[in-house]
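[Automated response] Your request has been received and processed.

Submitted sequence:
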Amino acid sequence: MKELSFIIDGQPMSKKRNYRIIRIGQHYALGLKREYKAWEKNITDQLWVQRMQYMASMVGVWKPIDMYVEASFEFFMKNKAKYDLSNLIQGVEDALVKAKILKDDSLIASYDGSRKHLGCAEPRVLVTIRPFKC
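Generated structure:
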């Protein structure tokens, strides 16, 4: 496997901040807000398109990555509000699995180089995936 890079346009969202209480009959449960679900679908679609571009340049069939990898996430945030880096990463990990880039997000063995930049004019996420070396 070679190194893969993806660019996700738009303001990153924290998964943990976007839960709400929903009523199901007599019971209550936690569910994700509509805004978060729309954001997750948008980034999954962006990743899917970029995955298709990688597929066009390779020989053979694309299979989701099923080996341990090192991932790096760089978040460029529009405002300077407090964001927990681990919560930002969680949503992007889920989108990588839904776009069939990773077989499972538990295969990420290292997050070296992940960071957030606050006050950027163009909000986006840069994702780099490379083979994990012990």
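Summary generated for your ticket: DSSP finds two helices and seven strands in the chain. The longest strand covers residues 69-76.
If you did not submit this request, please reply to this message.
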